[in-house]
Amino acid sequence: MNVNKLLDAKGLACPMPVVRAKKAMDELTSGQVLEIQTTDKGAKSDLPAWANASGHTVIDMKEENGVLTFWIQKG
């Protein structure tokens, strides 16, 4: 997968992962991919909801060693 930007949001509590994701997504052009790494368990529902509401697409998500990683394509 071709990732255009990596956002390290580990250690940040809600709503900061979504706030930072929005800011990072603003720097990308349509079709580019943002990888987000977070330890906030609420992000499991918050990031997909934000992406959907913003017209972006969650390509994939995984959880490993307490870190949630999302790949979101800009709409």
UniProtKB/TrEMBL annotation:
InterPro entries per record: TusA-like, TusA-like_sf
Superkingdom of the organism of origin: Bacteria
TM stretches of this protein: none
Domain UPF0033: 7-31
A Pfam family matched in the record: TusA
Species this chain originates from: Parageobacillus thermoglucosidasius
Coiled-coil region list: none
Family in the record: Belongs to the sulfur carrier protein TusA family.
Protein name: UPF0033 domain-containing protein
